[in-house]
Design brief:
Elements (H helix, E strand, L loop, with lengths): L3 H10 L9 E5 L4 H12 L3 E8 L9 H12 L2 E6 L8 H12 L10 H13 L4 H4 L14 H11 L15 H17 L3 H23 L7 H6 L2 H15 L9 H11 L5 E4 L3 E6 L2 E5 L8
Parallel strand pairs: 1-2, 2-3
Antiparallel strand pairs: 4-5, 5-6
Helix pairs in contact: 1-7, 2-3, 2-7, 5-8, 5-9, 9-11, 11-12
């Protein structure tokens, strides 16, 4: 039987933590993945603070902070309880995620595994995502992408930690849960292999392609209409997407593909201006593109 120390060493070789002595904040909900993140971050020699975010969405959620605080104290990590107010509206999962990241530091580490990566890619595929969406999550802030969910559960058991059971993870109202509990098992049955692992590995390959395209697109000035029109379309699209996301201060979330194509039409001189719903207006004058957020429309 593998000891907890042996398991930690094995999992650390496939994890991607900062150098020993680095101050890190780990988002720890109390589930198996995030508790494993906490264990491994401490084992990697980082100076760790466990941050628990209470969304206040269900009875008893505040008590889960005690589970995280106890685990942090046992492992020699710091603890920080946080509260996130979830704005009203549709798509509770997305709203809770946005609220959570608003209160966490930008360099927070999360316990997403290869299984989460596969789910993310399939959800993005359902939305018609391009290369970036199919590349899934990048390695920054996600040190456990090389591990499987079964391994985080095994590590918690070996460490004597009892993870919190979040009932929302079984709720079929959330699209990701249906991908996890229905789509991936069915695909694995059809393929007669572990599809989650295959999709996660494919995402890593596509991430390398996406990073290369980003590097090639970086020198392109997205406000130079001539430069955009002359550039290979794959690079021009990336330059425009980066520019719009930055100009609109949308936290790096890219505009949709149709909006990018309309901006490229402005660069080519096919139209003088275009509206980008929820972001603003892009117009062309004397060979330059200008972004005007005062034309921002409400998301429809």
């Amino acid at each position: 039987m593998t000891s907890s120390a042996e398991l930690r060493v094995d999992l650390l070789t496939r994890s991607n933590f900062p150098a020993a002595g680095t101050d890190v904040t780990c988002a720890v909900s109390g589930g198996a993945d995030s508790l494993a993140l906490l264990v491994l971050a401490v084992a990697a020699g980082c100076r760790v603070t466990a941050a628990h975010v209470d969304h206040g969405l269900r009875a008893g959620s505040a008590a889960e902070a005690d589970v995280v605080a106890t685990a942090a104290a046992r492992l020699g990590a710091g603890f920080r309880p946080l509260r996130a107010e979830v704005a009203p509206g549709p798509n509770l999962e997305a709203r809770a995620r946005r609220a959570r990241y608003r209160v966490l530091p930008p360099d927070v580490l999360t316990g997403h595994t290869a299984d989460d990566q596969a789910e993310t890619v399939l959800v993005n595929l359902c939305w018609g995502a391009g290369l970036d969406g199919l590349a899934g999550m990048g390695p920054e802030g996600h040190p456990l992408l090389g591990l499987r969910r079964s391994e985080t559960v095994a590590l918690c058991a070996a460490e004597g930690l009892t993870p919190v059971a979040d009932p929302s993870n079984a709720d079929p109202a959330f699209r990701r849960n249906r991908v996890r509990h229905e789509a991936l098992p069915l695909l694995s049955e059809i393929a007669r292999r572990d599809v989650a692992g295959v999709v996660a590995r494919q995402a890593a390959l596509l991430r390398a392609d996406a990073d290369l395209l980003d590097a090639l697109a970086a020198p392109i000035d997205p406000t130079d209409a001539g430069a955009l029109a002359a550039a290979p379309v794959a690079l021009a699209r990336r330059a425009v997407r980066r520019w719009l996301a930055t100009s609109a201060e949308r936290g790096g979330h890219p505009p949709d593909a149709a909006a990018v194509e309309r901006v490229l039409a402005v660069a080519r001189g096919e139209v003088r201006a275009t509206e980008v719903t929820g972001i603003g207006r892009v117009s062309r004058s004397r060979g330059r593109l200008a972004f005007d957020a005062s034309y921002r429309q409400a998301d429809g």
